[in-house]
Structures are given as structure tokens and as C-alpha cells.
Amino acid sequence: MGVTDMRINPIIPIWLMAILCVAMLFLKRNSWKAYVRQIIAVVLIFCVNLRIMVPSDNVTATTQELDTYVLFVVDDTLSMLARDYDGGTERLTAVKKDCENIIDKMDGAKFAVISFNNNANLVAPYTDNSEYAKSVINSLYPLESLYAKGSSLNICKDVMTDTLKRAHEKGDGNVIVFFISDGEITSTDSRLESFSDAAKYTDGGAVLGYGTKNGGKMYVKSYYSDEEEILQDTSSYPYKDAVSRIDEDNLKQIASDVGIKYINMNDGQSKLDDVVNDAVKNSGGDSDSRQVRGYADIYYIFVAAFAGLMVYEFWSIRKRNVKISEQ
């Protein structure tokens, strides 16, 4: 095993701990032996903070298997690039982070991903490979504005219903759906159709709404350089900056049709956690603990050495005090 095989997972940032350790070294002791022990103590504290981990064949890993199908239906139209989430974050960036959290909490379920813009596509059929599901979601990005035809929520309805139906017909687990969008409809297909056909195949989930009523501007890569520029509204001249706003009426209607909750994600993280926790609690399946190859902490070695040093320091001080009292 070489140094390159090791890993670290600092508790406190290394730069901050380095400053604290240097400060502790300036507190000089009276004797050089005591100061050497002080240096050793500071080094041990620094090593404990590093949380050094080494390869091991005896790492206990607990895996769970959930009898649940989870479908993500993700709007990746240009409006999802609007930067009005949590004070300036891009909507789609927030979506990816939230989906990762859902996958982590429901690890052991089977995940599928549908994305929709000009068309709706099943980009990942149901899989129990959570890392693959994450990578698919993280790869989502809108079409270039030159090819985008506007937003339509109806375009994903049939693919979504069919994908839910196929999971439901397997009969071996609950079917959960997370419909993710800002609710905007900007295409010529302006009337929202009913999503109620999906209700009979769905056991839970939520419609997650991103965006604000004030809206946000969308930043896209320039055709002429790698720099970002604000997307323009070309419906009238002179052009002006395009602004996308959440349409909660559409999102609430979809939630009502499917029979699931609507959550505005600007302040709905705790509500989403409740939905996910309920889904996990209502899932079947079991947990399995097994020995796997991984990385084991060895910080306890440095803790033990530090504790031994502190015992010696206590004994040394006590011994010195006894001598002083006898004089």
C-alpha cells in the first residue's frame, strides 16, 4: 500500500486547521522536552483532523433494496436556465441537486428518467444503478435557442403515463413520480391537457415547481464565443431580455390530476423530504450488511497516541507539583 492509496476526509478545512496548529506552536513551553511533546501533540491533532483512510477488505456496507419504482419527469427547456432559484441559482442546477438527494435517500429503488423539450424521451429506463441515474440527470441540458420551439407540458404526458403503467403492471412495488418543471407553456399548444390517466398507475410522489413570480433571465452560450449572454425575447422589436416566470396554476393542475402533492421548491425542501421519507417507509424490501473492499478510518490510532501523551503530561505535571510541595 502506497501513500497514493490513502484518502483523507478532513473534519475542519485543512487551511484552517493549519492556522490553528501554527498558533498552538507559538505557545512555547518552559523546557525543550515539554515543547517537543507539544509539537508531537499538535501533529497528532492535525492528523486526527485529516481523517486518514486506508484501503481495507473488511469494510461493512449496508445496502437497502426498495420495492419501489421512481420516475423523474424533467423539464429541460430553455426556461429552466432562468436564474431565480434561491437568490440567483439556475433552476436546472437546483433540479439536479434535488434529484441527487432523492436518489441518495431512495437508494435501492429502481429509477427512470424522462426529459422533455421539443420532444419527450425516456432517456433512462428503470434501473437499480443509482449512479447511472444521477449521471443521466446531470447530463440534461436544453436545446440551443436556435432549435427550441417553446415549452409544452402536454408533450410528455403519453410517455410519462406509459412508463408509469409498465412499472405498475409488474406488480412488485410502489410507483412514485416526480414531475419537475416551472409550469410555463410558451408553445402554440397553449391549453394544458389532463394528466389524470397517469393517476391509476401512481402510488405517490410530487410535482416540483421551480421559479418565481417575478421571474428570471436565462443565460446561454454565445454563438460567437464561449461567453454567456442573456437570452433575448425576439417576439417584438426592439428585442429585450427574455424573462421566465413560474406558472403554478399549471403545476397544481397536474398534481391534482395525478393525485400527488404540489411543492414550490423555493421553500419546499422540508416538504419534499416528507414525501421521500413516506415513500421509503411505505416501500417493501430489506437491508443487507456485508463485507466489501473500501476505505477504513485510522484516525483512532492518532487519538490513542494523543490520549497517551495527555496521560503522560498529566502525570508529569502532577509529579512536578509534588516535588515543589516537598521543597
Can you tell me about this structure?
The protein is an alpha/beta fold and 327 residues long. 37% of the residues lie in helices and 26% in strands. It has 8 helices and 15 strands. It has helices at 14-25, 32-50, 91-105, 130-138, 157-170, 248-258, 269-281, 299-326, and strands at residues 7-8, 52-66, 68-75, 110-116, 120-127, 174-181, 204-209, 216-217, 219-221, 228-230, 232-233, 240-241, 243-244, 261-264, 285-297. The strands form 5 sheets. Strands 5-4-3-6-7-14 form a 6-stranded mixed β-sheet, sandwiched between helices. Helix 1 (14-25) packs antiparallel against helix 2 (32-50), helix 2 packs antiparallel against helix 8 (299-326) and helix 3 packs antiparallel against helix 4 (130-138). The mean pLDDT is 85.
Question: Which key terms come to mind for this protein?
Answer:
6-stranded mixed sheet, alpha/beta, elongated
Order of helices and strands: EHHEEHEEHHEEEEEEEEHEHEH
Specify the helix fraction band. Answer: 25-40%
Note the gap between the termini: 55 Å
Main sheet properties: 6 strands, mixed
Structural class per helix/strand content? alpha/beta
Point out poorly predicted stretches. Answer: none
> How many beta-strand segments?
15
Strand order of the largest sheet: 5-4-3-6-7-14
Structural topology:
Elements: E1 7-8, H1 14-25, H2 32-50, E2 52-66, E3 68-75, H3 91-105, E4 110-116, E5 120-127, H4 130-138, H5 157-170, E6 174-181, E7 204-209, E8 216-217, E9 219-221, E10 228-230, E11 232-233, E12 240-241, E13 243-244, H6 248-258, E14 261-264, H7 269-281, E15 285-297, H8 299-326
Parallel strand pairs: 3-4, 3-6, 6-7, 7-14
Antiparallel strand pairs: 1-2, 2-15, 4-5, 8-13, 9-10, 11-12
Helix pairs in contact: 1-2, 2-8, 3-4
